[in-house]
């Protein structure tokens, strides 16, 4: 049986609602090692026949047996392997990849066969050198003449053995000299044992073949042979040199390399694809860093205050707007708690607005009666003099500590320490000046601090206090202390008209608030990532359309569906990963910028977030790259090749 056996073959296309029959009742058998020219006028169906011979297209009717196997029964994968291992295509317009150099173009079929890089590149160089392109190995097609490009495509057809060489109008775009050279080359290959099938409309080209098959209107009209039918002879196939895991790994590496090539060759497209991912990742990483940073900062401030303080306030909670009307927290409540085992110290706090006079200056100030420990809490730092002591509290000493604003108001040009201010008719001696250590928002009244006992007994004369702070000894359980306080005060008041806070509850509140914020920010970030992913998918889909010809070439030289899917998926994932890396870099840049603009802001980058950002970038690549990859892989090779 002949190598190629075609009987009753037909091919029809549906154009609109019409069926066009291009080939009908074609019988043809070609022996291994023959050199055949198929000649006919333009439109007679030569290319259609050639595409069927090369398994780029399937017949509508009739049978095609290659080497005894029925091609119609073969799966897509088997056809791809048949093309890859037995056929070598030469096209009229060369069909080379513009971004790859000569060696890169020639080695493609061998990549899909899984040959190791070194071996196949060496073979590619040898073939190119043999075809007279030894000094053009690194040139891209754009830097080669037509004849040279066609020789590159001959080398590509030969790299996997090229048992059957199919050339569709190979000289169609070449000048006379290059045409003659190419035909000599094809004859030489025929002499070496390759089966050569040439399609042409030019009788002089056809004349160099041993056998000429004429085709007209989709049917064979004449089949002439110079001399007797040759003995079938097959060349020994170049066996694949790589198999198994190593070969798949190599193919994966090759696909990655190709993806990088194509990204580098289309920088703007790649960048636009990445943009969504970059924005998404930047916002996730910096927002989470910002959230973590501010949370950490607030928590540190609380830690400075210390954990062993319980504050008692009137009302039912911070949201209660009645505390001024709930007049139940009184100085004697503090006395009742004093001396209890859970109370290392008890200090009420009162606050009132008072007219303060010094010399000719009168100003309204906020007068705060506090304990001696108040200034150790970290909200204020001493800048001059001293703060008052426990002894001052016990003796209701008439001393005052001013805040900076108060000091400026009353003692613009003199040292305030040792001076006197009058609250109503009560004189207080200034012993110190403090400065608020936090940042304050909006205008604030000037402040004067005095021992709480002095404020209650000598100034307000009132009974109610704004709050009572209880310092719990370090070895006393906070919860138990809270229970004791609640028990004692409930017995005194007859009802629970007060509430307790300690720094732990504040810490918890802040942590849960910032957790909510983190979720919110993460949700926003996830949305922008999804939007970015859809962007990736869109551009990948467009790029599939734009790259149909590339896909067609790859399929013609033996790429399987899985090879194409792999390539496009790797591209999508790489785009997303590079986008992710740029996003992380940008987030750090944002952090550096924030450090300059607002040094108080703290950003805490977490390895977890960055890891998650990369993982999601990769996921997006896989998820949104899958559809374009699949539609690329499913493209019909003929359709892809002929689409412009
Ligand atoms: P040749 O290569 O001999 O010039 P082709 O084989 O390319 O001719 O085409 C033969 C005829 O089949 C032409 O009339 C062409 O319009 C038609 N044809 C080829 N491919 C298709 C297709 N995919 N759909 C419809 N008509 C087609
Ligand atoms: Mg044609």
As laid out across the biggest beta sheet, the strand order is: 6-7-8-3-9-10
By CATH, the architecture of the largest domain is named 3-Layer(aba) Sandwich
- The CATH class label of the largest domain is Alpha Beta
* Domain module tally: 3
Task: Report low-confidence residues grouped into runs of 5 or more.
Answer: none
**In percent, how much strand structure appears in the residues?**
15-25%
What does this structure look like?
This protein folds into three domains: 4-242, 3-Layer(aba) Sandwich (Rossmann fold), CATH 3.40.50.300; 254-299 and 509-642, no CATH class; 343-473, no CATH class. With 644 residues, the protein is of the alpha/beta class. It has helices at residues 46-53, 76-86, 102-106, 108-113, 117-130, 146-158, 176-192, 203-206, 244-265, 267-305, 331-337, 390-394, 404-410, 452-460, 478-493, 503-546, 548-556, 561-597, 607-633, 637-642, and strands at residues 4-15, 18-30, 35-39, 61-66, 69-70, 87-90, 164-168, 195-200, 211-216, 219-225, 309-314, 345-358, 361-370, 380-385, 399-403, 420-423, 426-436, 447-451, 467-471, 498-502. It contains 20 helices and 20 strands. A six-stranded mixed sheet has the order 6-7-8-3-9-10, sandwiched between helices. A six-stranded mixed beta barrel has the order 12-13-18-15-17-16. Strands 2-1-4-5 form a four-stranded antiparallel sheet, covered by helices on one side. Helix content is 48%, strand content 21%. β16 and β17 (426-436) form a beta hairpin. Magnesium ion (MG) is lined by residues 46-47. Residues 4-242 form the ABC transporter domain. Belongs to the ABC transporter superfamily. Macrolide exporter (TC 3.A.1.122) family. It is found in: Cell inner membrane. Residues 221-234 have a biased composition (Basic and acidic residues).
């Amino acid at each position: 049986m002949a190598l190629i056996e075609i009987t009753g073959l037909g091919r029809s296309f549906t154009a609109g609602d019409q069926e066009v029959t291009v080939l009908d009742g074609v019988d043809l058998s070609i022996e291994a090692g023959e050199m055949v020219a198929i000649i006919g006028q333009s439109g007679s169906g030569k290319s259609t026949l050639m595409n069927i011979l090369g398994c780029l297209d399937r017949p509508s009717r009739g049978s095609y047996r290659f080497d005894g196997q029925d091609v119609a029964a073969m799966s897509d994968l088997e056809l791809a392997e048949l093309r890859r291992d037995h056929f070598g295509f030469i096209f009229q317009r060369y069909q080379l990849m513009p971004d790859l150099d000569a060696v890169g173009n020639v080695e493609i079929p061998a990549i899909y066969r899984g040959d190791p890089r070194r071996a196949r590149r060496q073979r590619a160089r040898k073939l190119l050198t043999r075809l007279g392109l030894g000094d053009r190995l690194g040139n891209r097609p754009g830097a080669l003449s037509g004849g040279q490009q066609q020789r590159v495509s001959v080398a590509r057809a030969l790299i996997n053995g090229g048992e059957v060489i199919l050339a569709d109008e190979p000289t169609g775009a070449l000048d006379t000299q290059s045409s003659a050279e190419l035909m000599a080359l094809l004859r030489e290959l025929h002499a070496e044992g390759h089966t050569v099938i040439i399609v042409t409309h030019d009788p002089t080209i056809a004349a160099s073949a041993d056998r000429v098959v004429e085709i007209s209107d989709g049917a064979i009209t004449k089949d002439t042979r110079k001399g007797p039918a040759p003995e079938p002879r097959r060349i020994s196939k170049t066996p694949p040199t790589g198999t198994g895991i190593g070969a798949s790994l190599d193919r994966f590496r090759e696909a990655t390399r190709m993806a990088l090539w194509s990204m580098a060759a289309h920088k703007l497209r790649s960048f636009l694809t990445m943009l969504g991912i970059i924005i998404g990742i930047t916002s996730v990483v910096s927002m989470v860093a910002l959230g973590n940073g501010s949370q950490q900062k607030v928590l540190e401030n609380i830690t400075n205050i210390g954990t062993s303080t319980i504050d008692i306030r009137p009302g039912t909670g911070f949201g209660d707007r009645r505390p001024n009307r709930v007049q139940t927290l009184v100085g004697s409540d503090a006395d009742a708690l004093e001396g209890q085992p859970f109370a290392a110290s008890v200090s009420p706090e009162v606050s009132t607005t008072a007219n303060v006079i010094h010399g000719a200056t009168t100003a309204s100030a906020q007068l705060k009666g506090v304990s001696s420990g108040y200034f150790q809490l970290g909200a204020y730092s001493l800048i001059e003099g001293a703060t008052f002591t426990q002894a001052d509290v016990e003796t209701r000493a008439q001393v005052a500590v001013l805040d900076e604003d108060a000091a400026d108001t009353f003692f613009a040009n003199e040292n305030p320490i040792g001076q006197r201010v009058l609250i109503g008719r009560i004189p207080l001696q200034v012993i110190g000046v403090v400065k608020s250590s936090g940042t304050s928002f909006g205008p604030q009244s000037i402040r004067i601090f005095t021992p709480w006992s002095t404020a209650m007994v000598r100034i307000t004369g009132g009974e109610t206090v704004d709050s009572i702070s209880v310092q719990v000894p370090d070895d006393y359980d906070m919860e138990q202390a809270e229970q004791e306080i609640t028990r004692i005060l409930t017995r005194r008041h007859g009802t629970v008209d007060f509430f307790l806070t300690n720094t732990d509850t504040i810490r918890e509140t802040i942590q849960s608030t910032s957790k909510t914020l983190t979720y919110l920010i993460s949700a926003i970030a996830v949305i922008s990532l999804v939007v970015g992913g859809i962007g990736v998918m869109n551009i990948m889909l467009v790029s599939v359309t734009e790259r149909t010809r590339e896909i067609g070439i790859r399929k013609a030289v033996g790429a399987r569906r899985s090879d194409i899917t792999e390539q496009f998926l790797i591209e999508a994932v790489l785009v997303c990963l590079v986008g992710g890396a740029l996003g992380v870099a940008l987030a750090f840049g944002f952090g550096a910028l924030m450090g300059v603009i607002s040094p108080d802001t703290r950003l805490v980058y977490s390895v977890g977030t960055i890891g998650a950002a990369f993982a999601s970038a990769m996921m997006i690549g896989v998820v949104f790259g899958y559809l374009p990859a699949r539609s690329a892989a499913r493209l019909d090779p003929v359709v892809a090749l002929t689409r412009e």
